[in-house]
Amino acid sequence: MNDSSVYAEARDTDIKVSPFVGMSVRELITTILVGAGAGLVATAITILMNKFVFAAVLCRPEAATDCTNAPMYSMIVGLVIGSIAGLVALAQLRVYRPLLIVVATVIALWGFQALVGGLAWYWALLVMMLLFGLSYGLFAWIARVRSFLLAAVIAVVLVVLVRLLLVA
Fold first, then answer.
1. What is the C-alpha to C-alpha distance for residues 160 and 158, in angstroms, rounded to an integer?
2. How far is it, in rounded angstroms, from Cα 90 to Cα 87?
3. 4: in domain
4. Is the distance from CB of 140 to CB of 14 less than 8 angstroms?
5. Which domain range does residue 115 map to?
6. What per-residue confidence (pLDDT) applies to 54?
7. What is the pLDDT of residue 117?
8. Is residue 67 part of a domain?
9. Residue 145 φ/ψ, nearest 5 degrees
10. By mean pLDDT, which of 43-47, 115-119, 146-150 is the weakest?
11. pLDDT confidence tier of residue 24, bands split at 50, 70 and 90
12. How would you write 7-30 as a 3-class SS string?
């Protein structure tokens, strides 16, 4: 049997490829825990930056009008640092398409920390950890679709739905 007949036989066989990349329950739970950790980091940094950095700098008597922007600036810094930490953790765990998961989560939950800002710090931390964990789990499950274009479109639709649900 020569090499060309072996290749012809291999091409003739029907190889079924799943439209989804495999993900075990353990990997999903680990991803959710990483999301909760990223939410913890993002919210803790937001609270600390707002209290000790931005409020202290922007809420002086000379510049009292800038004081309203302090929570937004601290939220941006907290989300960026928390997202980088989550991205690194997902990459170390070898989760499929970690950047899609993190970007979709950041866009879906953007500005939500301002809504939980009126809560006590421990409730805000708990709510954001829960939301980040659920969001990481949802988008990790969606990212399993083999076609990147289809996964991105589904992620965009879900981001819009999450934004509508959280803001409503």
1. 5
2. 5
3. no
4. no
5. 24-167
6. 82
7. 74
8. yes
9. -60, 130
10. 115-119
11. confident
12. HHHHHHCCCCCCCECCCCHHHHHH
Q: DSSP string spanning 55-78?
A: HHHH-SGGGGGGGGGHHHHHHHHH
User: What is the C-alpha separation between 31 and 34, in angstroms, rounded?
Assistant: 5
- The answer to whether residue 7 is domain-embedded is no
Q: Is 144 helix (H, G, I), strand (E, B) or coil?
A: coil
- Rounded to 10 degrees, the C-alpha dihedral 63/121/114/97 comes to 120
Q: For residue 104, what are the contacts with CB-CB under 8 A and spacing of at least 6?
A: 135, 139, 142, 155, 158, 159
What is the total count of domains within the chain? 1
Contact residues for 2 (Cβ-Cβ < 8 A; gap 6+): none
pLDDT higher than threshold 70 for residue 64: no
Domain contains 14: no
Determine what percent of the chain is predicted with pLDDT higher than 90: 55
Q: Are 89 and 77 in contact (CB under 8 A)?
A: no
Tell me the average pLDDT across 138-149.
92
**Percent of the chain topping pLDDT 70:** 89
pLDDT of 133 reads 96
